[in-house]
Amino acid sequence: MKEQDQLRRFIFEDLGVRGEWVKLNESWRQSIAHQQASPFIMEQLGQALAAVTMLSAIVKFKGSMILQAQGTGVIRTLVAQSSDERNIRGLVRCNEDVDSASFEQMYGQGQLILTIESENSSPYQGVVPLAGRNLGEALETYFSQSEQLNTRVWLVADQHQAAGLLLQELPSRKGDKEDWARIEMLAQTVTDRELLELDCEPLLYRLFNQEKVRVLDSESVEFRCACSRNKIENTLRSLGREELEDILQTRGDIEVNCEFCGQNYSFDRIDVEGLFADIAVTNATDTRH
């Protein structure tokens, strides 16, 4: 049976190089179920989701990693998120919908932003220009500038699946340029079709059959949205009672749709009163004390 919705990590036993392979199937199809864009634009989202899934396995954290591309071209913003448990979601918003464009046309003068929101530490954010011929090359630039680590990334997606391959030198064993150059040269022969069609171990054998590669256990990847009514309520409270009253006067109720999963949250006047009732009770209690 084909590997589906799986992440595999691997290590070159005698070299200072590690790698990751990912294949997104059902998780990818669920991720785009509520997105509206051409298949060509959706491929960018698929590549971003494959990328952020692999990146989330490089760094140890408890929380979520967010890859965001913002630009002045066809794509206004692209967001891909993976938790430390490999739960993914994503969205893309365009200034126009197209069926073909160069990477520069898609993003214009853009930025690649990588954010780690961890329960155990303060948020981390790295920002680099969106440079290169594709998203993989933009990520390579990120690691070169932010981490000073040789990294190669291959990403591909179609309407049914997304896949990725990542190679990176180990921070503890930097400097063996000959080994890195050999592994990089072998990996450069990989094709999009092989990434989409081959499972992890057959692909690694095809590329590195003369090397000693140890493949670690697979990790499952699934689509899961982090939205909830409680989070929407907190967002509405932050807008303030006056602004919510204006919306109620105009529309009668407040409808909020999650951009990631399409879930609808509805709030009528009684719901809105309830949002601020808890605050009133808390303030009253504080006053008595």
UniProtKB/TrEMBL annotation:
<dbReference type="GO" id="GO:0005737">
    <property type="term" value="C:cytoplasm"/>
</dbReference>
<keyword id="KW-0143">Chaperone</keyword>
<keyword id="KW-0676">Redox-active center</keyword>
<dbReference type="GO" id="GO:0042026">
    <property type="term" value="P:protein refolding"/>
</dbReference>
<keyword id="KW-1015">Disulfide bond</keyword>
<dbReference type="InterPro" id="IPR016153">
    <property type="entry name" value="Heat_shock_Hsp33_N"/>
</dbReference>
<dbReference type="GO" id="GO:0051082">
    <property type="term" value="F:unfolded protein binding"/>
</dbReference>
<keyword id="KW-0862">Zinc</keyword>
<dbReference type="InterPro" id="IPR000397">
    <property type="entry name" value="Heat_shock_Hsp33"/>
</dbReference>
<keyword id="KW-0963">Cytoplasm</keyword>
<dbReference type="Pfam" id="PF01430">
    <property type="entry name" value="HSP33"/>
</dbReference>
<dbReference type="InterPro" id="IPR016154">
    <property type="entry name" value="Heat_shock_Hsp33_C"/>
</dbReference>
<protein>
    <submittedName>
        <fullName>33 kDa chaperonin</fullName>
    </submittedName>
</protein>
<dbReference type="GO" id="GO:0044183">
    <property type="term" value="F:protein folding chaperone"/>
</dbReference>
<dbReference type="InterPro" id="IPR023212">
    <property type="entry name" value="Hsp33_helix_hairpin_bin_dom_sf"/>
</dbReference>
